[in-house]
Amino acid sequence: MLTGNNSLEQIDKFAQEMVDYVWYNKPFVKIHESAEIISPNTACRLLYKNQDSTKEQQIEKENNANTGVNTTLKIQLTNTSYNCDTTEAPSMVTKEVPQLKGDTKQTDRKVIRHDASDKAIDPKENIYIDPEVKVRRRKREYYKKRILTGNLVINTPNCFLGQRKGRIIVKLQKQIIKEIAAEKIDHITIDARAVVLSSNVIMLCVNKGIPIDFFNFKGEPIAKIYMTQMPDAKISIAQTQAFFNGKCYDLASSFVEGKICNQINVIKYFLKYRKKIDSEFTALCIKIIKEMSNFEHKLKHLERVKDFDLFRNRLMAIEGAVSSKYWEVVSTLLENDVLFVKRERQRARDIVNSCLNYAYSIMYSRIWQILIQQGLNPMISYLHKEQHNKPTLCYDLMEEFRQMVVDRTIFSIFTKGREIKLTDEGISLESRKLIIQEIIERLKGDITFRGTKMNYEQIMAHQARAMIDFLTDKKVKYRPFIGKY
Q1: Domain final position from 225, 255, 286
Q2: Is the per-residue pLDDT at 317 higher than 90?
């Protein structure tokens, strides 16, 4: 219950309930029937600011007449109890929209904000916009644009890629549709049929160190054009010696440990937004997390038998058991948004597995490139058994990043209700564009990793170097990447 006079503890409890109320797929909540949709954090700040206010209070501030804006802030706290199990948020706070001078059109739209002294106004909607919020929005838009510019994706058939004066040109039906300086491009992805590349643009990309990845109509990586770079001989020898000095056991166990911990953290991530409103999902998550933690304990105490293949099979058995629990939670998480029964890695026909496989392929090509750049031999692996003409070390390192990079991104696409279509040939063109864009933004987005801001591609390179340091005795232990939730 929230009344006119409340203690700091009551306000704090109510604010926390407000934050917990909002699901991950619903990051904004409508507080009042005639109110604008706002973030719960804004509402919480407003509550803190007015914790000593009476039940009904009006604050009026007249700005300088030269500004041309008359702001009136109206705060009303209703005597309404907050029930976390309901699907409707309580009516709490309303604010009148400022009227511009000379604008005779009246409006009854109302918005919530936490600071009546700000003078910024959105000219399109005639409502107040926090200046700090506007700056953050512009930074995000600029950062997003820079990421997408640096990763050129060609998913329209019959395009032509050429170069002119150090700039990469994309043409469609002899018309230039895009022209970017080569220095601004980090990566090129070809995800369409009948795309033509000139030898000049290939030479330019090779000289600039810009990789070009090709995907087939199923979304599978089939080729890569990159500057000639062979594995380092000393590192390859160290990779081979790991099977004789026992380091293969540590690396294989670390890859599985990282995967299990990140699977648990992904479940915790979605749980924290639903624990107050979905008791069945909460109970399932708590149960599954406990079972997965038990398997993690078994992993740490797994006996290191002399036969490494036998040890590897036991590791894979633990990994498979934990993954089955993980995908059980995912099935429940997505049940109201899309049909998902089980995980299928090959020849998937359902939309969730198709999107996951496609996104994994994008990350797979990036990890392959990183391993080559660091001098590792991608054909020598530890968790996955070596296969002819397959870079199985990519599969090893991918285990640490699947959940935080791909799973969270794909699950969020569905829980947010974004449209993904599946055709007879696989994922539709527009859906591929969406997935590529989201995965690239995720790969390039900064997070805090062991006290330093890095993006996921930089963390992958860091883990590859950490593997080299462990194999060459520069480090005594390899620590897997474990993301936060």
Answers
A1: 225
A2: yes
- Collect all residues with Cβ–Cβ distance below 8 Å to 386 and sequence separation of at least 6: 379, 380, 392
Amino acid at 309: D
Q: What is the DSSP letter of 387?
A: B
As a whole number, the mean pLDDT across the chain is 78
User: Residue 359 contacts by C-beta under 8 Å, 6 or more apart in sequence?
Assistant: 406, 409, 410, 435, 439
272 C-beta neighbours (distance < 10 Å), count: 14
401: left (phi over 0), alpha (psi -120 to 50) or beta: alpha
The CATH number covering residue 460 comes to: 1.20.120.920
Question: Can you tell me whether residue 422 is helix, strand or coil?
Answer: strand
Strands (E), 137-235: 151-154, 159-164, 167-172, 175-181, 187-190, 196-197, 212-215, 221-225
**CA–CA separation, 233 vs 247, rounded Å?**
18
CA–CA dist 457, 367 (Å, integer): 8
Domain encompassing residue 186: 143-225
For the stretch 356-377, what's the b/e string if a residue is b when 16 or more beta carbons lie within 10 angstroms of its beta carbon? bbbbbbbbbbbbbbbbbebbbb
Q: Are residues 15 and 65 in the same domain?
A: yes
Per-residue pLDDT of 244-270, as tens digits, reads: 999 999 999 999 999 999 999 999 999
